[in-house]
Amino acid sequence: MKDLIRKQALDIGFDAVGFADASTGARDRARLDAFIAEGHHGEMDWMARNIDRRKDPKVLWSEVRSVIAVAVNYGPDSNPLTDLKAKAHGNISVYARNRDYHYVLKKRLKKLGRWLGQVFDCDLKVFVDTAPVLEKPLAHSAGVGWQGKHSNLVSREFGSWIFLGEIFTTLKIKPDKMEIDHCGSCRQCLDVCPTSAFPKPYILDASRCISYLTIEFKGHIPLEFRKPIGNRIYGCDDCLAICPWNKFSKIASDLAFVPRDDLKLPLLEELISLDDKKFRKMFSGSPIKRIGRDRFIRNTLIALGNSGTNILPDRLLELLEDPAPIVRAMAVWAVGELGNKEAIKGLFDRCDDLEKDNTVRQEWETALNDDTQIVYQEMR
């Protein structure tokens, strides 16, 4: 049975397949409890609401007997860490440079599920990162890989570059051997994190993670994280990219995950010109579309503020009057960071009775520090 299922899954387009019992280990359940209790989930309240279902597959679906864990490789053609040097360009996480993997994998899982139902007359449910499932521990139990110290799954064959999906089934399938942890004494993924988001090995504080801040977090990104964000406008790959096991990784051959040219280091100056219609068109079919234009421009303005450019785009000053407060606030910050006299005058011209949002006004107060005030007085 297992060989037949594995062959079918590989033929459909998955790169790795494993089988596990429908249960999670005590250590994984304890880690999840601590993650929530310590507030490491940030504003992702849905994680706390569904914690019981997340910890036990049988609470999520009482009839499940086995889990089929699948993986797809999305390995990049170059080291993403080199992209951090391109200050005038936006750095998009490797996984988001083409189609939304949730839809791609779910379509393939449904195809595999239909085949399973026809051949083995079983019931099943398919999941891709959107249901309360501890997918990484289940994939670990199924032998697909192990959870590295960065908390993501690592594969001996594909390194850190894999997407995961699961099929819960009423079939009773003999589990595969669990993969052992091959991290050893290495801690490169912990040390490379620009925001110190790992309080200890295997534990992520998502509220400090750049991926969380630029994707899941809906508000004004705290000042302490803006400089470390650098040119990252959607996600962060640092802890994945530095993993030594990536020396065995393979460049993605799946066309759905080969980077689009326009999403590989796009110019920041062009991105800040996107209105909602252009944003939706550019990111149609991309996971980036999910965060919406305002949060994306928020991220892009932070990257622009970190770019060190000497030429201030006219569009940046226009964004001081954008309808969205999170965009106006980061336009203020970016102008203040770039620090030329035209920018400072724009700040002062805007900083009086016109702005009603308190958070944006606070950004002005922060930007208009003593050094800026001196320059403004020189202008007068």
Structure description:
The protein has about 375 residues and is α+β, with helices and mostly antiparallel strands. The chain has one domain. It contains 19 helices and 8 strands. It has helices spanning about 1-10, 25-35, 45-50, 50-55, 55-60, 100-120, 135-140, 190, 210-215, 225-230, 240, 270, 275-280, 290-305, 315-320, 325-340, 340-350, 360-365, 370-380; strands at about 15-20, 65-75, 90, 125, 145, 155, 160-170, 230-235. Strands 1-2-7-4 form a 4-stranded antiparallel sheet, sandwiched between helices. Strands 3-8 form a two-stranded parallel sheet. The longest helix is centred in the N-terminal third of the chain and has 20 residues, at about 100-120. The chain starts with a helix and ends with a helix.
